[in-house]
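Quick look at the format.
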Amino acid sequence: MLATLVEEPFSKAEWAFEEKYDGVRILAYKEGETVSLISRNGIDRTDRYPAIAEAIAKLAPSTLAVDGEVVVFDPQKVSHFQLLQQGRGRPQYVVFDCLHYDGRDLRDEPLSARREALELAVKSAPSPIVLAARMASHGLAAFQDATERKLEGVVGKNLSSRYTEGRTTEWLKVKVHQEDEFVIGGFTEPAGSRHYFGALLLGLYAGDQLRYVGKVGSGFDQKTLRALHGKFQRLIRNDSPFSAGVDERAATFVSPKLVAQISFTEWTKEGKLRHPVYLGLRDDKDPRDVGGKA
């Protein structure tokens, strides 16, 4: 179940508000002693997060399915995708929904009932399982708190909503700062003392067309430059994947198979990113699902 992005903070009666976490979405399944951790695009990540799988296995219900986000927190308890992607810190699993509990399919139950089941399932959960904390019941107060704490944003959820697959307006998210996923469609030649490449060429899908939204040249260390350049070698192509021309004389184009997490200050009037910074690759996202303002 995926939240819909809205531009402004809001408040609604009979809605709950939670912190928007900056990590990797994971569904955890427990059947007896068998545990599976599955990413949003259906990849098994059990081996990547063994401590989380072991903790799920220790929970009391014999069968269980919970929804959550694998994150790494900084010392101020703010999650950052970059910390998780770079392996800087201990991954924790923040759980916020329960789909199945001890033989009961809860997807048609209201969120309020699913939350009760979730709290029961994880009330004595061993670390690194964390129950998603509810924020202020008034959405504007929750957003103000998120702004002061420099969180990624807030997710509002209708307490009567059922759990349905796909994008929904029963869950709404509003971001405190600008950070999103973009498709990599090419790179530029390095200049000065930099090696491997200069900047990444970024795009967003609008229907079947990949719209160019600018380039990012900051946020890379030498290790990251080398690793990304290695991934690009099997993707290089002669023609541009973008729907319109890219004004970069020294551009090398690649097939749009990789997704990057980017922070930025704002969108320009021309629909380009201002002051973008590379944060990491997203291997849990399908490039065709990466679309938005362009």
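Next, a different chain entirely:
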Amino acid sequence: MRRRMGRPGLAGTMARTAVIAGTATAVSGSVRNRQEASAQQAADAQAADQQQAAMQQQAAAQQAAAAQAAQAPPPPPPGDDMIASLERLGALHSQGVLTDEEFAAAKAKLLG
């Protein structure tokens, strides 16, 4: 049998085409997988950055609230002011500065 030289036959051309197509499919799949993995890593990194920024903002807000609470003196209880005012009125009434009617009117105004 003699071997033919020159151009390949139909079977050789089909085989070459199949190898080229298979290689192209494998390469494009590999490229797509790398791109998807890279995009997923970027999305994960961005989500982690956002979460860290949110945690830092929350910590800063808590520190600011703690600092503000430490600086502001606690307000006096509301009953203490009323009691002190009633004691002053009583003292003024007992000293004769206020009449019975004035004392009763001022006391009613304080008590609501």
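The helical segments are 10-71, 78-95, 100-111.

See the schema section for token definitions.
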